[in-house]
Amino acid sequence: MSFNSKKTATLSVVAAALLATCWGAQAAAGNTAVITVTASVVSNTCTLDTPSATVALGRLSLNQFTSVDSESSAKPFKLTLSKCGAGATGVKVSATGTEDATDNDLFKNTGAAKGFGIKIMGGDKLTKQLSKSSGLGEYPITKPTGTTDLNLNASVVQTEAAVTAGDVTSSINLEVTYD
Q1: What is the CATH topology of the domain spanning 47-178?
Q2: Distance between CA atoms of 57 and 74, rounded to whole angstroms?
Protein backbone atom coordinates (compact mmCIF):
# COMPACT_ATOMS: atom_id res chain seq x y z
CA MET A 1 0.00 0.00 0.00
CA SER A 2 1.41 3.35 -0.97
CA PHE A 3 1.09 6.45 1.20
CA ASN A 4 0.06 9.69 -0.44
CA SER A 5 1.49 12.69 1.41
CA LYS A 6 -0.71 15.08 -0.56
CA LYS A 7 -3.90 13.49 0.87
CA THR A 8 -2.47 13.62 4.39
CA ALA A 9 -1.70 17.32 4.10
CA THR A 10 -5.17 17.99 2.70
CA LEU A 11 -6.80 15.98 5.49
CA SER A 12 -4.77 17.88 8.09
CA VAL A 13 -5.86 21.23 6.68
CA VAL A 14 -9.50 20.10 6.55
CA ALA A 15 -9.32 18.77 10.13
CA ALA A 16 -7.78 22.03 11.37
CA ALA A 17 -10.48 24.06 9.60
CA LEU A 18 -13.25 21.93 11.13
CA LEU A 19 -11.69 22.23 14.57
CA ALA A 20 -11.43 26.02 14.26
CA THR A 21 -15.05 26.22 13.08
CA CYS A 22 -16.27 24.14 16.02
CA TRP A 23 -14.29 26.25 18.51
CA GLY A 24 -15.59 29.46 16.96
CA ALA A 25 -19.17 28.22 17.15
CA GLN A 26 -18.71 27.32 20.80
CA ALA A 27 -17.23 30.75 21.57
CA ALA A 28 -20.15 32.41 19.79
CA ALA A 29 -22.59 30.35 21.85
CA GLY A 30 -22.17 32.63 24.88
CA ASN A 31 -18.99 31.60 26.67
CA THR A 32 -17.92 35.01 27.92
CA ALA A 33 -15.99 36.40 30.83
CA VAL A 34 -16.23 39.69 32.65
CA ILE A 35 -13.06 41.16 34.10
CA THR A 36 -13.31 44.00 36.57
CA VAL A 37 -10.18 46.02 37.28
CA THR A 38 -10.10 48.31 40.29
CA ALA A 39 -7.49 50.67 41.69
CA SER A 40 -7.14 53.47 44.16
CA VAL A 41 -4.98 56.42 43.18
CA VAL A 42 -3.55 58.15 46.24
CA SER A 43 -1.25 61.10 46.74
CA ASN A 44 0.31 59.98 49.98
CA THR A 45 2.83 57.39 48.81
CA CYS A 46 6.56 57.65 49.50
CA THR A 47 9.79 56.60 47.83
CA LEU A 48 11.82 53.95 49.61
CA ASP A 49 15.39 55.27 49.38
CA THR A 50 16.83 51.92 50.49
CA PRO A 51 14.95 49.19 48.61
CA SER A 52 17.13 46.46 50.11
CA ALA A 53 19.63 46.12 52.92
CA THR A 54 22.04 43.52 54.19
CA VAL A 55 22.53 43.56 57.93
CA ALA A 56 25.89 41.97 58.76
CA LEU A 57 25.97 40.81 62.37
CA GLY A 58 29.57 39.65 62.02
CA ARG A 59 31.10 36.60 63.63
CA LEU A 60 29.14 35.30 66.59
CA SER A 61 30.59 32.79 69.04
CA LEU A 62 28.62 29.60 69.53
CA ASN A 63 29.60 29.90 73.24
CA GLN A 64 27.52 33.06 73.69
CA PHE A 65 24.37 31.06 73.00
CA THR A 66 23.86 29.15 76.25
CA SER A 67 20.13 28.41 76.23
CA VAL A 68 16.92 28.91 74.30
CA ASP A 69 16.21 32.65 73.90
CA SER A 70 19.91 33.60 74.20
CA GLU A 71 20.37 36.52 71.85
CA SER A 72 23.23 38.20 70.04
CA SER A 73 23.82 41.92 70.33
CA ALA A 74 21.37 43.83 68.17
CA LYS A 75 22.67 45.57 65.07
CA PRO A 76 20.89 48.82 64.17
CA PHE A 77 19.97 49.61 60.58
CA LYS A 78 17.75 52.16 58.92
CA LEU A 79 15.46 52.37 55.90
CA THR A 80 14.54 55.87 54.75
CA LEU A 81 11.31 56.93 53.07
CA SER A 82 11.27 60.27 51.26
CA LYS A 83 9.15 62.27 48.84
CA CYS A 84 6.02 61.37 50.77
CA GLY A 85 2.88 62.96 49.37
CA ALA A 86 1.27 65.92 51.11
CA GLY A 87 -1.53 63.72 52.45
CA ALA A 88 0.80 61.23 54.15
CA THR A 89 0.90 61.43 57.94
CA GLY A 90 2.61 58.16 58.79
CA VAL A 91 3.60 54.71 57.61
CA LYS A 92 3.04 51.27 59.06
CA VAL A 93 5.42 48.39 58.50
CA SER A 94 4.53 44.72 58.30
CA ALA A 95 6.56 41.75 57.13
CA THR A 96 6.40 38.61 55.09
CA GLY A 97 8.95 35.88 55.30
CA THR A 98 9.12 32.35 56.59
CA GLU A 99 8.54 32.02 60.32
CA ASP A 100 10.93 30.04 62.49
CA ALA A 101 9.48 26.57 63.13
CA THR A 102 10.05 26.82 66.90
CA ASP A 103 9.19 30.48 67.54
CA ASN A 104 6.79 32.11 65.07
CA ASP A 105 7.76 35.60 66.30
CA LEU A 106 11.17 35.05 64.69
CA PHE A 107 12.10 34.62 61.05
CA LYS A 108 13.54 31.33 59.81
CA ASN A 109 17.27 30.93 59.41
CA THR A 110 17.97 29.37 56.01
CA GLY A 111 21.73 29.17 56.55
CA ALA A 112 23.75 26.15 57.70
CA ALA A 113 23.70 27.06 61.42
CA LYS A 114 21.00 25.12 63.27
CA GLY A 115 18.83 26.18 66.21
CA PHE A 116 18.65 29.92 65.44
CA GLY A 117 16.07 32.45 64.28
CA ILE A 118 16.21 36.11 63.27
CA LYS A 119 14.63 38.83 65.39
CA ILE A 120 13.73 42.28 64.02
CA MET A 121 12.82 45.11 66.39
CA GLY A 122 11.47 48.52 65.45
CA GLY A 123 8.81 51.05 66.24
CA ASP A 124 8.97 53.68 68.95
CA LYS A 125 12.31 53.31 70.78
CA LEU A 126 12.85 49.93 69.07
CA THR A 127 10.53 48.19 71.52
CA LYS A 128 8.18 46.45 69.06
CA GLN A 129 9.08 43.05 67.62
CA LEU A 130 8.33 42.56 63.93
CA SER A 131 6.81 39.23 62.93
CA LYS A 132 4.45 37.97 60.24
CA SER A 133 1.55 38.37 62.65
CA SER A 134 2.59 41.69 64.19
CA GLY A 135 3.56 44.93 62.47
CA LEU A 136 5.65 47.72 63.94
CA GLY A 137 3.05 50.38 64.56
CA GLU A 138 3.21 53.78 62.94
CA TYR A 139 6.25 55.84 62.03
CA PRO A 140 5.30 59.53 61.70
CA ILE A 141 6.26 61.45 58.58
CA THR A 142 8.24 64.62 59.20
CA LYS A 143 6.68 67.74 57.72
CA PRO A 144 7.47 69.69 55.56
CA THR A 145 10.28 67.43 54.25
CA GLY A 146 7.99 64.43 53.74
CA THR A 147 10.52 61.93 55.09
CA THR A 148 10.74 59.29 57.78
CA ASP A 149 13.44 56.91 58.96
CA LEU A 150 12.47 53.36 59.80
CA ASN A 151 14.97 52.59 62.57
CA LEU A 152 15.29 48.85 63.08
CA ASN A 153 17.49 46.32 64.89
CA ALA A 154 18.37 42.76 63.89
CA SER A 155 19.69 39.99 66.10
CA VAL A 156 20.14 36.22 66.16
CA VAL A 157 18.17 34.26 68.77
CA GLN A 158 18.75 30.69 69.92
CA THR A 159 15.55 28.68 69.34
CA GLU A 160 16.62 25.14 70.27
CA ALA A 161 18.69 23.57 73.04
CA ALA A 162 21.08 21.94 70.57
CA VAL A 163 22.72 24.38 68.16
CA THR A 164 25.36 24.03 65.47
CA ALA A 165 27.74 26.56 63.98
CA GLY A 166 27.38 27.87 60.44
CA ASP A 167 26.02 30.81 58.49
CA VAL A 168 22.79 32.51 59.55
CA THR A 169 20.68 33.97 56.74
CA SER A 170 17.09 35.11 56.37
CA SER A 171 15.19 37.10 53.75
CA ILE A 172 12.44 39.30 55.13
CA ASN A 173 10.17 41.40 52.92
CA LEU A 174 8.80 44.58 54.46
CA GLU A 175 5.48 46.00 53.37
CA VAL A 176 4.90 49.70 53.96
CA THR A 177 1.36 51.09 54.09
CA TYR A 178 0.58 54.78 54.23
CA ASP A 179 -1.85 56.81 56.31
Answers
A1: Immunoglobulin-like (2.60.40)
A2: 8
